[in-house]
Amino acid sequence: MNMISFSQNGETPFQQLLGFNKDILEKWISLEECFYSSKTFSVELKEEVRRRLAFNNGCEYCKAKGAPSKAILNPRIQMAARFADFSSKETHIGDREMGALKEVFSEREISELLAFICFTSASQRFGALLNLLPSCQI
Predict the structure, then answer these.
(1) Gene3D superfamilies recorded for this chain (predicted)?
(2) Over the stretch 20-37, which tens digit does the pLDDT of each residue have?
(3) Which of 28, 87, 111, 112 has the fewest CB atoms within 10 Å around its CB?
């Protein structure tokens, strides 16, 4: 059971939990659309990051969309998945970790990847904190 009721704003259960402030909801959706429409990273990379974060952040609603991959061959997806896991445990990136990132990604890509990780984590933590479940009905 959700910790709060659903608002009348939004199309998904997540959006309706966030939708009590329509301005925040609209900007949140806009930023999410910006990340997912960006061509910087493949759909597969973003989905693997989303899945890993869902399990790290404990969002049951997000976990229901699929588990992280067990074997990743693409080095860019491997590194992004590694940093999704890293971000769940650490708050600072050291020189060694940043060096590893720079071997695979440009600074522009690193900025976008870390912003995507933080935004996705915030979304999932919001859902987890409010006990959003995959079976939620709106």
Answers:
(1) AhpD-like
(2) 999 999 999 999 999 999
(3) 111
